[in-house]
Amino acid sequence: MRYETTAIAAIALLIGEPGIAQEGEPPAIEKLRFDEDYSYLRTVPRPYSWPDCWKYIPFDDDPDRYLTIGGEVRQRYEYTNNPTYGQDPQDKRGVLLQRYSLFGDLHWNRHLRFFGQLTSALEAGRAEGSSPVDEDKLEWQNAFVDLSPGGRDGREATLRLGRQEIVLGSGRLVDVREGPNVRRTFDGGRGFVIGEGWRVDVVAARPRLDRRGVFDDKTNNTQALWGIYSVFQKPLPPFGNLRGNLDLYYLGYENEDSTYVQGTEHEDRHSFGARYWGDAGNWSWNWETLYQFGRFGSGDINAWTLATETTHRWADIHWQPAVKISINIASGDDDLDDSDLGTFNPLYPRGNYFSEAAVFGPRNFYNFHTFLYLQPIEALALTVDLNFFWRLETEDGLYSPAGQIIRGPDDSDAHFAATALSLTAEYTFCRGLVFTAIHTFGKPEKFLRETAPSEDLGFTELTLQYRF
After folding, report:
1. Across the chain, which distance is largest between two alpha carbons, in Å?
2. Which of 30, 99, 359, 371 meets the CB 3.0–4.6 Å disulfide criterion with 385?
3. Does the reported pTM lie above 0.85?
4. What is the superkingdom listed in this entry's lineage (predicted)?
5. How many whole angstroms separate alpha carbon 94 and alpha carbon 82?
6. In this structure, what is the dihedral angle of CA atoms 29, 30, 34, 39, given to the nearest 10 degrees?
7. Cα(381)–Cα(386) distance, rounded to whole angstroms?
8. Beta strand ranges found along 136-261 (DSSP E)
9. For the ranges 151-155, 294-298, 397-401, 434-438, which has the lowest average pLDDT?
C-alpha cells in the first residue's frame, strides 16, 4: 500500500496552509491544463496564497515572461462484478489505478511559449494484466511549443508543434479519454485562429502508442488524424436572439489495421459534421450529426450518426434539479458478405462514452439515456442516469469505446442489448480536490443473453482527485 501512503502525503503537502489572499478570480481548472490562463496575477501584489505562488513566477521585469507550475494526484479504486457481463476475467479484489502529473508552462513572451507535462499512470489488481489505458509508468503527456505571430484586427493566430492533448467540440470524436487511467495524446501540429465570436483549428497528427514502461512510448505511425474544425458563437438565424453556437468540421482518419466484425483492412475515412449547442433560460442543448465515407480495403464506407442532448434545469427550486434526455444513433454494417462497410467510426472518443463502466462504444447502436441531476448543497452533486441500449443492425456486433469487438452477431436477430442504471455522488472539498463515488447496475437483455455469457454487471468506482 505504498502508493496510497504516498498519495495521502502528497495531497496534504499540496493543500498546505492558507497564505495571504489575493485579488482576482483564478480560472476554472480545465480538462486541458494548458488552457488555463493565470496572467491576471501579474497585477496582484505578492506574496500569493497557495497554490497561486506556483501559478505566476515572473522572470526579470517583463510581465509577459513567467512560469506556471501545476499538477494532479488521482487515486481510483474500481471493482467490477462480472466484467463485460461475465465475458472477461473476474478481478479478485478490484483494481487500484493511480495517476500523478506535473506540468510547467513557460511564457517566454507574447510570441513564444513552451509547455511540458510528465504523467505517471500505475495499475494493480487487473486479473488479465494491465491494458494500454491502465498503466504507463512515466511519459511525456504534453511537450509542445506555441508560436504566435501576434494579433491583427481582433484575431490571434497560434501554431502548436509537438506532443499535445486534443479535444474537439464536446469530445464525441476527439477527446483526451479522461475516464481511463492513461489519457490520450497526439504527436503533430495544430494551428488555430481565434476571432471575435469564432475559432478555426487545423490539425495534422498521429496518436501516441502507449507502452507500460518509462519513456518508451512512440508515435503510432499506423494511424493518422487531420482536418479542420470551426466554431461560431453568434446568434444564428432563424433563431433570432437565441444564442446558439455552431460547429462545422471535416476530419480525415487513416488506420492501417482497422478491425470490424466484417474483418481487418486498411481504412481511410472522411467525416463531415455539424454541431449545434447552446443555452437559453433554463434550457441547454448539444446536438450533433455527421456523415462518413471512404475506403475499407476494397470496399466503400458509408456511415453516419446523430447525437442529441437536451437539458432543462429548475434553478430556483431547492436542490436545483435538472433533467437531461439523450437520444443517439450510429450506423452499423447490414451485410457482412460484401466488401462495403456501414459501421460508424467515432475515431478517438471519450473512454467513458456512456458510463464510467465503459463497456460499449458508439458504433452500430441506438439508445435512450436519461439523467436526473440534484445539488443538495454547493459542494455536493448527485446524478441518477438510466440507459437503454440496442444494436441497430443485426448483421453487425457490439464494440467497446476503443473499437474492440465485444460481441459478434452470432446469428441473433435481437436488437435490445443491455440496460444500465448508474448512481453518482461528487463532493468538492475545495478548489481542485474532488471525491467521486459511482455505482452502475447493468442488466443483459435479449441480444447478450442469446450470444454469450450474460451475467448481471456491477461496477463500483471511488475516486479522489486533486488538481492544482
Report:
1. 72
2. 371
3. yes
4. Bacteria
5. 11
6. -50
7. 17
8. 136-147, 156-164, 186-195, 198-209, 218-219, 223-233, 244-260
9. 151-155
Indicate the burial class of 297 (C-beta count within 10 angstroms; 0-12, 13-18, 19 or more). middle
Q: What is the dihedral of CA 133, 127, 465, 278, to 10 degrees?
A: 50
Kindly write down the DSSP assignment for every residue of 365-415, as one continuous string: EEEEEEEEEEEEETTEEEEEEEEEEEES-TTS-EE-TTS-EEE--TT----
pLDDT digits (tens, 9 = 90+) for 92-144: 999 999 999 999 999 999 999 999 999 999 999 998 888 889 999 999 999 99
Cα–Cα distances (Å) from 327 to 247, 315, 387, 408, in that order, read: 19, 24, 10, 24
Task: Please say whether the dihedral angle defined by the alpha carbons of residues 42, 46, 49 and 55, taken in this order, is positive or negative.
Answer: positive
Give the CA count within 13 Å in the CB-facing half-sphere of 26: 19
End-to-end CA distance of the chain: 24
Residues contacting residue 183 through CB under 8 Å, at least 6 positions apart = 119, 141, 165, 176, 177
Reading the block at residue 256, the C-alpha cell is: 492501417
Q: CA–CA separation, 265 vs 230, rounded Å?
A: 31
Query: Which residue type occupies 459?
Result: F
Cell output for 244: 446558439
**Phi/psi of residue 179, each to 5°?**
-60, -55
Domain boundaries, the chain: 2-467
Model confidence pLDDT, tens digit, residues 202-248? 999 999 999 999 999 999 999 999 999 999 987 665 555 556 899 99
What's the CATH number of domain 2-467, 3.70.10.10, 2.40.160.100, 3.30.1360.120, 2.60.40.1120? 2.40.160.100
SS3 label, residue 210: coil
How many CA atoms, within 13 angstroms, populate the side-chain half-sphere of residue 123?
A: 21
Q: Which DSSP helix (H) or strand (E) runs through 68?
A: strand 66-81
CA distance 162 to 60: 28
